[in-house]
Amino acid sequence: xxxxxxxxxxxxxxxxxxxxxxxxxxxxxxxxxxxxxxxxxxxxxxxxxxxxxxxxxxxxxxxxxxxxxxxxxxxxxxxxxxxxxxxxxxxxxxxxxxxxxxxxxxxxxxxxxxxxxxxxxxxxx
Length: 125
Description:
Could be a nuclease involved in processing of the 5'-end of pre-16S rRNA. Belongs to the YqgF HJR family. This is Putative pre-16S rRNA nuclease. It is found in: Cytoplasm. The protein is α/β, with parallel strands linked by helices. The protein has one domain: 2-Layer Sandwich (Nucleotidyltransferase, domain 5), CATH 3.30.420.140. It contains 4 helices and 5 strands; from the N terminus they run βββαβαβαα. The chain has helices at residues 34-48, 64-78, 92-99, 106-124, and strands at residues 2-7, 11-17, 23-30, 52-57, 83-88. Strands 3-2-1-4-5 form a 5-stranded mixed β-sheet, sandwiched between helices. The longest helix is centred in the last third of the chain and has 19 residues, at 106-124. It is globular, with a radius of gyration of 13 Å.
């Protein structure tokens, strides 16, 4: 199973690849603090039987290095022992807003995760 996540400050969007061509958004993880969020993420990955984790990583922009450091630190806290792939998430939120307009709703974050995971699958296939 391949799971994609979009790491945010309030929520972590989650998407699951049901096949190499079908990706669906899943229930987002609410983030109270990073340790709780990392633990909840690991629990979700185990429940879904994930073998690969695809993580959205912003490329470009003035904060690229800082965001990459923070995201990779958080992923390290998860303690996932499968494959970890970092996928460019540029404009995934813009694309998600075309599908789901309420960015305050956690489903929005999972739609962004779905877009990130679809991008990865296009690269792999």
